Amino acid sequence: MAVKIKLMRLGKIRQPYYRVVVADSRTRRNGRAIETIGKYHPKNEPSLIEIDSDRAQYWLGVGAQPTESVQNLLEITGDWQKFKGLPGTEGTLKPQVEKVDKLARFNEALAAANEEPTTAATTPKKKGGDRAGKTADAAPAEAATKSDDVADATKDAAEPATESTQS
């Protein structure tokens, strides 16, 4: 039986990730696998490559043939050089960035927010504030003139009544 070390695609559309598997060469890409020896996430920055070196060395030693893409991954991790006896067994794998704990990030943001002065507005003014200011000023002025008109009308109505009673 011919055995290959190949990638099994998983994930969503435009969000792929792969398992590095040992499988019969006649099986489909996502078909039945003999053993899973690693994983590969190409969308991460830098790409996440985790391969069990001992299992990869075993399968290469018993004659499993890697596909081109898996061979490139094995060269990056240094397993291919180790198998062939070449120099550079440390590989060129870039380390992953440490993730900061969410609670720690929240506490840092909270501390930063407490240090800032609270006298200034937190949100910027909206554009077009001149138009809003003019209409706001005009509305009280109109209301004032209307109330003056009402007061004048009541005053005028009271005066003729008093005149008619006197005559």
UniProtKB/TrEMBL annotation:
Give one Pfam family, short name only: Ribosomal_S16
Q: Does the keyword Ribosomal protein apply?
A: yes
Stretches with biased composition (Low complexity): 109-123, 135-144
Q: Name one GO cellular component term.
A: ribosome
User: What are the record keywords, sorted?
Assistant: Ribonucleoprotein, Ribosomal protein
UniProt cross-references to Gene3D superfamilies, sorted A to Z: 3.30.1320.10
**Keyword match Lipid biosynthesis:** no
Extent of Basic and acidic residues compositional bias: 145-158
**Region of interest (Disordered), ranges:** 109-167
Which InterPro entries does the annotation name? Answer: Ribosomal_bS16, Ribosomal_bS16_dom_sf
Q: Which family does it belong to?
A: Belongs to the bacterial ribosomal protein bS16 family.
Q: Which HAMAP family match?
A: Ribosomal_bS16
In its UniProt entry, what is this protein called? Small ribosomal subunit protein bS16
Source organism: Pseudonocardia tropica
Lineage runs: Bacteria, Bacillati, Actinomycetota, Actinomycetes, Pseudonocardiales
State which gene encodes it. rpsP
